Amino acid sequence: MSMMLAYSLFNIIADATYGALAAVALWGLYCIVVIWNRVKQKRFRNEAQQDAFMEDVEQMLNAGDFDGVTEYCEGDTRALPQMIDMAVSNRQRGLQQARKFMMDRFQRDVMSDLDYRLSWVGTVIKSAPMIGLFGTVFGMMGAFESLSDPSQDVDPAKLAGDIRVALVTTASGLAIAIPLMIMVANINIKIAKMEDLIGSGLGRFIDAFKAGLAKTGGR
C-alpha cells in the first residue's frame, strides 16, 4: 500500500514538474515577444529613416516653429518623436529642464519596461534548469525507492520510467534556458543599437533645439 501511495505521489510531482517547465517556458517566450515588439515600435527602422525625420524637425526648429514640431511628433509612438515632443512642450522651463524631462520619459516609458521584461526572462533562464534538476533528483529518488525494497521484484518498466523522468526534466530545463539565452543576447544587441540610434538623433535635436530657443527666447 505504501509503495502504491509513493508511486502515485511520484506521478503527481512528475506531472507538476512538467507543468512548471511548460509554464516558465511560455512566460519566458511571451516576455521575449513583448520586448521584441517594444524595441521594434520604439525605434526607426533604419538610420536613413531617422535622418529624414530629423531633417524635417531641424528645419522647423531653425525657423522657430515649435508648434509645427509638436504637430509633427504628435501620435508618433517611437521613442525619439515622443522625447522631442516632451522637450518642446517644456521649452519654457529652459534647455536643461526640457532635456531632463525628455530623458526621464525615455527611461520611464521605454527602458524601465524593457529592463522589467528582461529581468523576468533572466529569472526563467535561471529557474528552468533548477526545476529540471528537481525533476532529476526526484526521478532518481523514485528509481532508488524501487530498488530498495527487497521484498518485491523490481519492475523494469517502472524503473525505466523513473529514470526517464530524471533525464527528460533535465533536458527540458536546458532546452528552455539555452534558446532564451541566445534570444536575450540578440535582444540586447537590438536594444544597444536602438540606444545608439536614439542618441545620435538626440544630439542633432539638442543642437537645433538650443538654436531655436536662442532665436525665439523659449516662446
From TrEMBL:
<dbReference type="InterPro" id="IPR050790">
    <property type="entry name" value="ExbB/TolQ_transport"/>
</dbReference>
<keyword id="KW-0812">Transmembrane</keyword>
<keyword id="KW-1003">Cell membrane</keyword>
<dbReference type="InterPro" id="IPR002898">
    <property type="entry name" value="MotA_ExbB_proton_chnl"/>
</dbReference>
<keyword id="KW-1133">Transmembrane helix</keyword>
<feature type="domain" description="MotA/TolQ/ExbB proton channel">
    <location>
        <begin position="97"/>
        <end position="195"/>
    </location>
</feature>
<feature type="transmembrane region" description="Helical">
    <location>
        <begin position="12"/>
        <end position="36"/>
    </location>
</feature>
<keyword id="KW-0653">Protein transport</keyword>
<feature type="transmembrane region" description="Helical">
    <location>
        <begin position="163"/>
        <end position="185"/>
    </location>
</feature>
<keyword id="KW-0472">Membrane</keyword>
<dbReference type="Pfam" id="PF01618">
    <property type="entry name" value="MotA_ExbB"/>
</dbReference>
<feature type="transmembrane region" description="Helical">
    <location>
        <begin position="118"/>
        <end position="143"/>
    </location>
</feature>
<dbReference type="GO" id="GO:0017038">
    <property type="term" value="P:protein import"/>
</dbReference>
<keyword id="KW-0813">Transport</keyword>
<dbReference type="GO" id="GO:0005886">
    <property type="term" value="C:plasma membrane"/>
</dbReference>
<comment type="similarity">
    <text>Belongs to the exbB/tolQ family.</text>
</comment>
<protein>
    <submittedName>
        <fullName>Biopolymer transport protein ExbB</fullName>
    </submittedName>
</protein>
